[in-house]
Specification:
The protein has 169 residues and is α+β, with helices and mostly antiparallel strands. It folds into two domains: 99 residues, no CATH class; 57 residues, no CATH class. The protein is 50% helix and 17% strand. The protein has six helices and five strands. The protein has a five-stranded antiparallel sheet with strand order 1-5-4-3-2, with no helix packed on it. α1 runs antiparallel to α5. It is elongated. The N and C termini lie far apart (52 Å).
Length: 169
Amino acid sequence: MKTTINQFMRSLHRDLGYFVLGITIIYAMSGIILIYRDTNFLKSEKTIEKQLAPNLQTSELGKAMQQRGFEVLKSEGDLIYFQNGTYNKTTGIARYSDKTLPPVLEKINNLHKASSKDLSHLLSTIFGFILLFLAVSSFWMFKPRSKQFRRGILFAGAGLVFTLILILL
């Protein structure tokens, strides 16, 4: 029996859909957690002590601390106070508290932040291509003149318009 392109696409769509199910669950969880990254959702506080160069200027201190929106609150003697911590100019020791996700969740979230230098970019790239294939191959699920196909085109168009509206707002 000869396999048609529709049968082949349906089988490939099904099998790849099952394959990416676990990846999709992980990405969905990390995406939800990243939405709330500006809150303390699932984060715990930890105290950090960092050895920096002594006698850093306040502008250099911000860069060395690698903190967004770094701002010195006050300076008393050898101590420089900033949000959630201090820096000793003489010893170069910075002590501060930070709120972080548990290590497992931090690793999962790094999937979303992968750059081409990270090995995990391969997973992200392959996942992206498979999702693109699943989206396009869904049009082979029904015959082009069928009611279900036209409905699929309408829903795909509505999803595209909805996304563009949200992006442009």
